[in-house]
Design brief:
heterodimer; A: 228 residues; alpha/beta; Rossmann fold; 6-stranded mixed sheet; 4-stranded antiparallel sheet; 10 strands; globular; B: 932 residues; alpha+beta; 6-stranded mixed beta barrel; 26 strands; 18% strand
Chain lengths: 228, 932
């Protein structure tokens, strides 16, 4: 892994038009996340975490400032390039259940590899099994999402997010709907990912109990970064 | 309450627009059927009247009364007669067209005052016809003066041309009646003022045509009344002949029973019963009623599947409504509203929607009915002859029923949980589980029942046509078995469809991209929740195919049969006068009409002489059979007639060639061979109706020959059906002419392509031909195609298809919009993880292929199969007693293209809406939705 920052946020401001004026969600945010780091984006709800995540995830554009992923500015990327970037180099974990209901656990994980363009092979199947074992679901591979608990589903989603070995995983409040024990377990898995696979992880949370696991904390308040 | 309701409706405006659309369509469809039927029956009765006019040349809606008052003191009989027409019109509630009223004295000798010797033997009737002057034109002389009498008291009279010619009366001549005196005892004198004729040739006023009034002289009615009636009535014998004629065009189908009953009263119970006779419309009504029972039952049976589909649609929508409103109802409830309040809220909302729907749907239904009436064939319209539609009592009852059903289905969700929805919300229900009907093998059961129906009807085909001929309507079971077959086959397809999809998935497993993969999985796992909408689609299309084939087959077979039986465009048989010897007995010779004049018939492309002997005989007295004999010029005959090769063993012309090369050869109908044992090469002796024989050599047997019907089917007086063998001998014209001598022939004419039947008609009139037989294929075809049963069938079937396809499109769209909405979060996730928009579209397109396109193909296949199985049976119901050719299943490519066109248009519209929804979908918004 290079020492170069996987994420570089440079003076990002995001202004939304609202009835009768404007609302500034983010004000001149600067941040850099080096490769292989488990970073936590911290802040109360409404502090601008999701907005920043969306911008880093190329789903949204900053009103001002720039974002570099692996040193490449995303500003000039076409929609199609961004989509390719997302499916190859990124993994996503969402707050609520985001598995495809018609695919079982194995197929859901396999699907992210399919999307990344990894051809079907014995190795691919092995990798899927390995990822599911890593999140502790080695014995539930053939279960449908509707047959699993929320925590289990979220772990499948995590397995899915790193199965295709992305450079970066963006996890938006992945522990919000889990009990504290499960939340701790999920955070642990993330931490392990950075160690084992050298993946950079940016996770938002407002759960103070999870901060200890982070290599780096970016704290937002009312759209402004308040640490560092 | 009102405020909440309006707010609620505005909030869900698209759902409400859909509901309103449903209400409008339902009302319009339901209302259109009775309106259409009423209008079709009106047209039918009107056609019956006009048909009577054109064949009989008489006014159909009239009744005639005659009384003779023989010097009756007070003349009460005549007074009563004067009141008859008014009372008749009032009681029947009909509009007077004309009232023909002739008052006449008895025919008595008269003498010319000029003393012409030749006028001595004249016997003349003095009469008056009310309103006559409105219907005459003056050929010579003058009309009556104001007084109606000359200055010296002679009564002015008008005479017809025939009276002038036959009786030799002259204008300005005075006559004196020999035996009748004027009331004052003096001589009764008349003065011939002028000569009249009917104002125009087609004048139905004249119940006695002017040319038949050759012994009648007509004076003014008021003069007649004042002179011979009133106080003087007791001195004269007066005949009163009254014919009330009423407007047939304003007679509606719904009036028939009433007018019929009132007429029966007049003829059987009223004081006039002994003097009344001849009401032609009574017979017309009888015929009409006979046709009506058959047609109305058929039309009702045909529209049942459409109404059933409508009900199923509402059932789905209603369940859909419930699923959508479930959370809202619980919110309202949690805020403290009572169940009653909620029900009322929905009831009011339903009321607004259904009443709006009815207000728009009623006129739309009338429009639908008009379109129905313009149907020429399945999905083929001709607006030139549109139907006069109006609301009937029945249509209002239907409308109320539609409103009630709509209202119920909108209100029901508020208190009842309906389990069947377009999207079964609980996905876990759909996963892997088989549907209840699959477990119960309902599809196999339905197929079994319908095939049993097919089998038993197929076996009893002959009974079926017999039953139809005896006036019975279409057996509902027959129609139901074909519908059950469609439902069963459609369900069976749904049973195998998931296996089909997973088979395709497995075959191409290595090549599927992420989008295809996910859509395959989606269909294999969740496909069953689409079953209802797929079944709907399959049924719509297969019913459409089936109905198109039914309509086309019935129409084309009827047309083909008429063309075959008529054999050529026009057939004219002139009157041949047989010459008598001086003792008055027939010589067997005729005055031969001039054949060369047909040269002047410019409308003819070709014409030929044909002996057409209906009463030929074969064999000796005891075992003789009667046969039809045709004598033809093979070359000329072949140039204007044709029989499709499908019905013959070899080409039609080869038969004619066989005949042409043997001067004394004959072609015989097949039954001479099978029933009588004749063989090729045998001799056969036959004779015409004048018992002139001919001996011929048999050169061949045919199954069909132009105009030849192998069997005659009909009804015995006791109502049972019979069928009788017909025999036909075809010989060379020249040979028969040699054997029979001068014998009446027909002229068969083929018209130029741009010539019409009217051209021939005009020519016949110009040539002043006395025609014994006149057959015109154009008119026969028009009658065949205008048959109300055919037209009604086409109308109802087309309407049914259009309505179901619209419902299907709406249902399909609602299903897909719901399905996309439901999966918005997943789409958002997919987009966020890098799915391209195109891939999402690809995915949805795949799903469309699995559900929609597969259903369409299944529908087409099932439709074809159903047609093959059931159309041959169903068309028995439409066979007529003069069906000669075997009926064939006919599909025309253009019919199918029209059907496919409609389906394609609907599918493209649905796809466009989906694309629109898709492109408006916002990834971040969709994701946010999940975070709430």
């Amino acid at each position: 892994m290079s020492n170069e920052s996987v994420i570089k946020v440079d003076g990002v401001t995001r202004v939304f038009p609202v009835p009768g004026g404007e609302f500034t969600a983010l004000k001149g945010i600067n941040a850099e996340v080096p490769a292989g780091t488990f970073a936590i984006l911290k802040g109360r709800s409404g502090s601008g975490k999701t907005t920043l995540m969306n911008i880093i995830g190329t789903l949204d554009d900053p009103t001002d400032g720039a974002v570099y992923l692996n040193g490449t500015p995303i500003k000039n990327m076409s929609e199609h390039e961004r989509e390719n970037l997302r499916r190859r180099d990124c993994g996503f974990v969402f707050q609520s259940v985001s598995l495809i209901p018609s695919l079982n656990a194995f197929q859901n994980v396999e699907f992210s590899m399919r999307m990344a363009g990894i051809k079907p092979s014995k190795e691919r199947d092995k990798r899927v099994e390995e990822c599911l074992r890593l999140v502790g679901l080695g014995n539930r591979m053939n279960h449908m999402p509707s047959e699993m608990s929320g925590g289990e589903q979220q772990r499948v989603a995590i397995a899915r997010s790193f199965a295709h070995s992305p450079k970066l995983i963006l996890a938006d409040e992945p522990t919000a709907e889990l009990d504290s024990q499960m939340a701790a377990k999920v955070t642990e898995i993330f931490k392990e990912m950075t160690r084992k696979e050298g993946i950079t992880i940016l996770m938002t949370t407002h759960d103070v109990g999870l901060m200890g696991a982070a290599d780096m904390i970016i704290e937002l308040e009312n759209g402004v970064r308040i640490n560092g | 309450m009102l405020g909440i309701m309006l707010e609620k409706m505005w909030h869900k405006k698209w759902m409400n627009v859909c509901l309103l659309l449903g209400c409008i369509l339902l009302t319009a469809t339901v209302v259109s059927f009775p309106i259409y039927r009423a209008a079709a029956y009106n047209r039918m009765i009107n056609d019956e009247f006009e048909n009577y006019i054109s064949t009989e040349g008489r006014w159909p809606t009239m009744i005639s009364a005659t009384v003779v008052s023989r010097k009756e003191k007070g003349g009460s009989t005549l007074k009563k007669m004067d009141e008859f027409p008014g009372g008749f019109y009032d009681r029947l509630k009909v509009k007077e067209t004309y009232t023909f009223c002739e008052l006449s004295l008895s025919s008595t000798p008269i003498s010319s005052e000029t003393g012409r010797g030749d006028a001595k033997a004249l016997s003349i009737k003095l009469a008056a016809i009310g309103d006559m002057t409105d219907h005459i034109k003056l050929l010579a002389g003058e009309l009556y003066s104001e007084a109606g009498k000359t200055e010296d008291g002679a009564i002015e009279v008008l005479i017809s041309q025939s009276c002038m010619v036959d009786k030799g009366l002259l204008i300005n001549e005075y006559f004196t009646f020999d035996d009748i005196k004027a009331p004052d005892g003096k001589a009764l004198r008349v003065y011939v003022k002028g000569v009249y004729d009917s104002a125009d040739e087609l004048n139905y006023f004249w119940q006695i045509k002017p040319e038949k009034l050759n012994d009648t002289i007509l004076c003014r009615e008021d003069v007649f009344r004042s002179t011979f009636m009133g106080d003087n009535v007791g001195r004269y014998t007066i005949t009163s002949y009254i014919v009330p004629m009423f407007d047939y065009e304003s007679v509606k189908a719904t009036d028939v029973d009433r007018i019929y009953a009132d007429t029966k009263y007049y003829m059987e119970e009223s004081p006039f019963k002994s003097v009344l006779k001849d009401a032609p419309y009574v017979k017309i009504f009888d015929d009409y009623n006979k046709k009506l029972t058959r047609i109305s039952a058929t039309l009702i049976i045909l529209q049942v599947p459409v109404l059933a589909m409508l009900a199923a649609f509402l059932f789905m929508i209603s369940g859909q409504m419930y699923e959508m409103e479930k959370s809202e109802i619980s919110v309202i409830k949690s805020r403290g509203s009572s169940s009653g309040q909620i029900i009322r809220l929905y009831f009011y909302q339903g009321l607004v929607l259904t009443l709006t729907g009815a207000v728009i749907g009623m006129p739309l239904g009338a429009l639908f009915a008009k379109v129905l009436g313009s149907t020429r064939n399945f999905l083929e319209f001709d607006f030139s002859q549109s139907l006069n539609v109006s609301y009937t009592k029945e249509s209002l009852i239907y409308a109320l029923a539609a409103i009630a059903v709509c209202l119920l289905s909108i209100t029901i969700p508020s208190f009842k949980h309906s389990k069947v929805t377009i999207v079964n919300l609980k996905q876990s229900n759909a996963l892997k589980k088989k549907s209840w009907w699959e477990k119960l093998f309902i599809d196999i059961l339905l197929l079994g029942v319908s095939l049993y129906g097919f089998y038993s009807f197929n076996k009893n085909m002959k009974d079926l046509s017999g039953a139809v001929m005896s006036g019975e309507s279409l057996d509902p079971l027959l129609y139901i078995s074909s519908s059950l077959f469609i439902v069963g086959a459609g369900m069976f397809f749904l049973r195998i469809q998931p296996h089909l999809v997973s088979l395709v998935y497995k075959i191409g497993k290595k090549w599927w991209g992420p989008a295809s993969h996910v859509s395959f999985m989606e269909n294999i796992k969740n496909g069953r929740k689409q079953q209802l909408i797929m079944l709907f689609l399959i049924m719509t299309i297969s019913l459409g195919m089936y109905h198109a084939t039914v309509a086309r087959t019935i129409l084309d077979n009827a047309v083909e049969n008429t063309e075959y039986l008529d054999a050529t465009d026009v057939i004219i048989k002139e009157v041949w006068t047989e010459i008598t010897d001086r003792y008055g007995s027939y010589t067997g010779d005729y005055i031969v009409p001039d054949y060369s004049k047909y040269n002047t018939l410019t409308a003819a492309k070709s014409y030929t002489r044909v002996f057409n002997e209906a009463k030929g005989r074969v064999g000796s007295n005891s075992d003789a059979i009667s046969t039809q004999i045709l004598g033809i010029n093979t070359k000329e005959f072949g140039a204007q007639t044709m029989v499709s090769k499908e019905f013959l063993e070899k080409h039609y012309y080869e038969y004619l060639n066989d005949l042409a090369v043997v001067e004394d050869g004959v072609l015989l109908s097949r039954n001479f061979n099978t029933k009588m044992g004749y063989n090729v090469g045998d001799s056969i002796i036959f004779s015409n109706s004048k018992k002139k024989p001919a001996t011929c050599k048999i050169v061949g047997f045919f199954d069909y020959f132009p105009s030849y019907a192998p069997m005659t089917n009909g009804l015995n007086p006791d109502g049972t059906a019979f069928s009788k063998e017909n025999y036909l001998i075809v010989a060379n014209y020249d040979y028969l002419a040699k054997k029979w001598g001068t014998y009446p022939y027909e002229v068969w004419i083929k018209l130029n392509d741009d010539a019409t039947a009217m051209d021939v008609y005009n020519w016949v009139n110009e040539q002043k031909l006395s025609v014994k037989k006149y057959e015109n294929r154009e008119l026969d075809l028009k009658a065949t195609m205008g048959d109300p049963l055919l037209q009604g069938t086409n109308g109802v079937l087309t309407m049914g298809f259009v309505v179901t396809i619209v419902l299907c499109a709406v249902g399909y769209l609602i299903y897909w919009v719901m399905s996309i909405r439901e999966r918005e979060l997943i789409f958002g996730v997919l987009r966020a993880t890098g799915f391209h928009k195109g891939e999402i579209f690809h995915m949805l397109l795949n799903e469309q292929v699995f559900s929609g396109v597969l259903s369409i193909f299944a529908g087409i296949g099932i439709g074809k199969l159903t047609s093959k199985l059931f159309v041959p049976i169903l068309q028995q119901a439409y066979s007529s007693e003069n069906q000669a050719l075997p009926m064939r299943l006919i599909t025309v490519a253009s019919d199918m293209y029209r059907l496919y066109g409609v389906i394609a248009a609907v599918m493209i519209a649905v796809l466009l809406v989906l694309v629109f929804i898709l492109f408006r979908m916002n990834v971040t918004k969709a994701l946010k939705l999940g975070e709430e």
